[in-house]
Every structure is written in structure tokens, then in C-alpha cells.
Amino acid sequence: MKDTHRLERGLCAVAGEGLTSDEMGEAVSRAIGVLVAHDALHLCWRHPGTDLPSFGFWHRLTPKVDWTQLIAFYSGRESAHPAGQARRGVPGHVVDARDPLAHRILLDNGFGSELRLVLRGAKGVWGTLALFREQGGRPFAPDDVDRVARLVPPLVAASRTYVRAPSLRPPDRDLPPGVIVVGADHAVRGITPEAHAWLREIRLPGSLAGPEWAAKALSCEVAIAGRRFARDPASPRPVACLPSAYAGRWVSVHGQPLDADGRGDVAVVVRSAGTELLPALASWYEITGRERAVLGHLPDGIPAKQIARRLDVSVHTVNEHLKALYRKTGCTGREEIVAALSR
Questions:
Q1: What total of structural domains would you count in the chain?
Q2: Strand arrangement of the beta sheet that strand 188-191 belongs to
Q3: What's the pLDDT tens digit per position in 215-260?
Q4: CATH number at residue 233
Q5: Is residue 279 assigned to a domain?
Q6: Of the given ranges (125-139, 140-154, 186-200, 268-282), which has the lowest mean pLDDT?
Q7: Which residues pair with residue 191 across a beta bridge?
Q8: Would you tell me how many other CB atoms lie within 10 Å of the CB of residue 311?
Q9: Contact indicator for 156, 121 with CB cutoff of 8 Å
Q10: Residues 198 and 325 in one domain
Q11: Which DSSP symbol is given to 144?
């Protein structure tokens, strides 16, 4: 237990230093390596309440591996994919020869074994962790899963520290929305000049350098979610929010099918996050329900007294919620929060 607390303090200290995603991937890999040896790592974060990834860290892993696994999963051929584990609540899983397709993907990319772990916190699933071992090495075993599972609380705490390290601020300059068109075969069919500007602006990991992989990383799961939403409006909305610590600014990525049944192309719109930020902020900044209710009224520009009447609480309570919001987001006042939410 003491080792876990020490690791959490160390990871949170590193996460608050404003490191790049590649530097964070290396730091997390080094911390995990103390307990379980591995050759590569992919850590994917999703805020509770959404099926879509927010950001991720990579270490010594090419995006081709994750891309191939992802497409196999959404085609129904790879049920043990981390995204499927997260939905089913499966805490840990070792991929080896007993999973023929998943194992074949590993072998084709120089790996022999993979450990997948769902990162579940008190309020839901925050993400997934995948560790890889090269061919010829010792495969992962169930006791490796048990050791890595001890790292879930430190990793979840470090992720929140990472997201909240920069104060909530509007971007220095605005960019017009860009569009990435994704076909039914998951291939990127087109990228507008504005979307190219976003791909240059967003600080994605070095392994995603270049417009092809960057566009796939931003658009693939959002496009799939858009198709699912077109067929089932009760499914989660196809919107992902990337935090400013990762992308340089809070970014909204939204999928909109170009046909009624969602079976054709999908337009994935990339733009500065506005009101879509509210659910993400509530999760990452640990904003309470009452604080979120107050936050939702701030863009209206109404005084605290009127917010109090709307919420049927005292003005003192509203002001206390406002102080908590300023403290949690690092904003100095209402104007900064409203500016961040209105982009």
C-alpha cells in the first residue's frame, strides 16, 4: 500500500509538470516497468459517460497495431479489444495464442503477448491500458494482471492531475472548424484545409506524426460512434473532447453521418470545444452536480442572485459554488470561464 501511494505521488508530480504526451508515455512506462516488464505501452483515457477516447499516451508502439485491433473489434472479429473490455467491465485480460485473431495481429507487428487492463475508478471507467511484450519473451501471466491492477488508482489520479495542470483558458487564437471525411471502410477520404490546420495545431504523440495517422486517430472512433448514433439515438452522442494539456487547447471532435442510416461517409468536425466541455469538465475537474448547474447558467450573463432564484438556493450558496469552480479550474473569475466555454 505504501508503495502504491508513493507511486501515485510520483506520477501526479510528473503529470503536473506540463510534459508532452510522449514524455508522459515514457514516464508511465517507466513507473509500470518497476512492477511488470514490457516492451511497449498504450494508455487510452476516456472520461466516464462516453464511449469515446479523450487522449492517450504511447511508448514504443506504432499506431498500426492499435488501428488494426480497433478495426477488427468494430467489425465484430476482436471481442477482447480494450474498448470491449471497458463496456463489459472485464478488469484484465492477457492476449496470447488462445485469441487467434488478436494474437495474429500481435505476431504481424513483432509482439508475442499483450496485457489489457480496464482503468476503473469510483465513478466509472476512465480508460484502458495495454502492455506489449515482443516475440520470444515470456508471455504475460495472470499474476502480471494482478500486479498492474494495483496501479489503477495512481494512474487515474495522475490522469486528472495531467488534465487539470493548465488553467482553463480560451485559446490564444481561434481556428475555423475543419472536416475529416471517413468512409464506411474506416478510411479517411478527405481532409479540408481547415482540418489540416487543426492537425498541425493539435499536439498529438510523435507516433501519430503526419496527416494520415493523425486524421485516423482523431476521426475513426468518432465516425463509428456517429454511425451508431444515426441508427440508435439512445446511444452516447458522437462527441469527443481533447483536453488542453494534451492538444494545446480544448478540442471538440464530432461525427455527423452524411446519410440517414449512417452506413456511408461520416463528416468528422474538429473545432474549439464550447458547451460540449461541460460533461468533460465535470468529470476531469470533479465538479459536483450543483456546481455544474451554476456553471451552466454563467454563459447567460445573469447575476448570482438570479442564478440562486433559478436553482432555488441562497446567493451565499451560489457564491460558494463559484469559488469552488474558480479554484478547481484555475480561472480568476466568471469572464474567464465563460470565454473558455463560448469558443
A1: 3
A2: 188-191, 178-182, 266-272, 251-257, 239-242
A3: 999 999 999 989 989 988 888 888 999 999 999 889 999 999 999 8
A4: 3.30.450
A5: no
A6: 268-282
A7: 180
A8: 16
A9: yes
A10: no
A11: H
